[in-house]
Structure formats: structure tokens, C-alpha cells
Amino acid sequence: MILPLDWDKPSDGNEELCRKFSRNTYREEDFEMPYRLFKPKTDGPVPFVVYLHGADAVGDDNILPLSMHDIGTCLARDRFQLSHPCYILAPQYDETQYWNTPAISRAIIKLINQHIEEGKADKSRIYIYGYSAGGVGTLFMLSNHPDIFAAAIAICGVTGRKSLKALSKKPLWLCHAIDDTIVRATYRQPGRDTLGNYGSRDIYEALMSEAKELKYTEYPKGWMKMQYGVNPHCSWVAVSDYPQIWEWLFSKRLETVQNSSVSEQL
Q1: Which residue in 93, 186, 252, 253 is a FRET match for 86, CA 20 to 30 A apart?
Q2: What is the pTM of this model?
Q3: Which segments within the chain are labelled E, that is strand?
Q4: 3-state secondary structure of 196
Q5: For residue 197, with 0-12 CB atoms within 10 Å meaning exposed, 13-18 middle and 19 or more buried, which class applies?
Q6: Residue 78 — φ and ψ, nearest 5°?
Q7: Which of 4, 39, 7 is nearest to 23 (CA)?
Q8: What is the C-alpha separation between 2 and 206, in angstroms, rounded?
Q9: Rounded Cα distance, 192 and 188, in Å
Q10: What's the CA gap between 114 and 128, in Å, rounded?
Q11: Which of 226, 224, 256 is nearest to 240 (CA)?
């Protein structure tokens, strides 16, 4: 993937956080999936978070998903782990795969279940989030495995019409810059009533009246550039330092879902 010159860079402390994640490989017959795992400093069942990288971190090096940006390591910061100890799973797919590749999604679910069975993960507090292609993957995993995930955050993601009904039943927070030209916040065009793709704004508008709990944060035109000096697609930069969104995520359990839909524009 050729990155724009205004792509974001990880902070100085990100390399140290990356080292807190062990390197592992999931193997099943002739299939392998590299992944990194952060283990909290506690034994009991705690939340388990799945983080899905974007297209800029595709490969099999088991490095890029965490080293590209702060968004993959932000929950491993000491100040967050003190209040919300959790496992963080960061899988990686290669150039021949995607998040909806059956072997990839199956491996992720098996790793989650393994930690639940071992008494390490709280099965009522399994969360998932991702950016760009990982935002797409987050929406895919949430809609296809609603009984696994308590809540999700999809950053500059997109989905299709078939997923909307399932997404309406889960706590979901969408984040997107309105001037993102790589993955659009809306795919609506004048004179067209039907959509092939649903960006974050489209998802929110389609589900706001029926969703159990749906939130949408939209960054206005020029905001990502003005605030962070980065490409509008890099809305994960804003999310990584947005305490309210993470507090919201960790407050959700499978058995506690409230009816509310909120749109927020900065």
C-alpha cells in the first residue's frame, strides 16, 4: 500500500508498548496466522479485546499491526491497564487474505474461546475494534458473531446492506472523518436511493431509529489536518486519545444493552 505523505506516525513511546505484546502463531493443519498478545498483570477473568489492523499493516511479519500506529497499543498503556486490565489480541492477515477469510475469522474466535475456557477472559466482556480494513473487519465480525462480542468500535469502516440488521442489535460506536476519500463516511449520491456500500454516516442514518445502542462521531472537513496534521483517513489518531470511547466500550456486557443512538460532530 502506497501511503500518502501526511500519513500518521506512531508516538515515541509506541515501540516500548509493542514489546509488551508476545509474538505467537496460530496453526491449524496447513493454515497459519501470526498474532501478538498482550497479557494483563492479573489472573482472574478480565475483558478480552480483539484489535484488527488496516490494509497498511498487511503481511506476515507480526510487527506492522502494532508498529504502524498508536491505535493498536493504546489500551496497553499503564494508565489504562490500571483501571481496565485486559487481554489484547492483535492478529495479522497476509496479501492473500482478508478479515472475512473463513480461516482468519475462525482462528480469532478459537483464540477467544481458548482464553474463556482457561478462565482468563470474561466471556461477557469480549470487545472488538479496528481501523480502515480493520473497521470493515470489525463490522463483519460483529454482525457474524453477535453472541461473542459485547460491543465494538469501527473506525473509518464500511459495510453492506446485509449486515445492517445484525449490527442494529449490538452496541456499536462508529468514527469517521467526513472528508475521508479512502473510505468514505457516506456513499450517498444525488438521485440514488439504494447504496452498495454503507460508510459510517450511512450506517448511522440507516439504523439510528432502531439500533439498541449506536453512537457516531464524525470529524468535520479539515479537522484531522488542523488538529493532528494528518490525512483525513487517519481518524484512528483521534480515537486512540479519546478516553470516553474506551470507557464506553469497557462498560458494556453481553447482558446489559440500553436503547440509545447518539450522533456527535466535533
Answers
A1: 93
A2: 0.95
A3: 21-28, 31-38, 46-52, 87-91, 121-131, 151-155, 158-159, 172-177, 198-199, 213-219, 260-265
A4: coil
A5: middle
A6: -55, -45
A7: 39
A8: 33
A9: 7
A10: 16
A11: 224
Q: Are 137 and 107 in contact (CB under 8 A)?
A: no
For the chain, domains (ranges, CATH) are: 42-265 (3.40.50.1820)
Cell numbers of 24, please? 505467537
In the structure grid, which three cell numbers stand for residue 1, read together? Answer: 500500500
pLDDT in single tens digits along all 266 residues of the chain: 789 999 999 999 999 999 999 999 999 989 999 999 999 999 889 999 999 999 999 999 999 999 999 999 999 999 999 999 999 999 999 999 999 999 999 999 999 999 999 999 999 999 999 999 999 999 999 999 999 999 999 999 999 999 999 999 999 999 999 999 999 999 998 767 778 899 999 999 999 999 979 999 999 999 999 999 999 999 999 999 999 999 999 999 997 545 555 566 55
CB 92 within 8 A of CB 33: yes
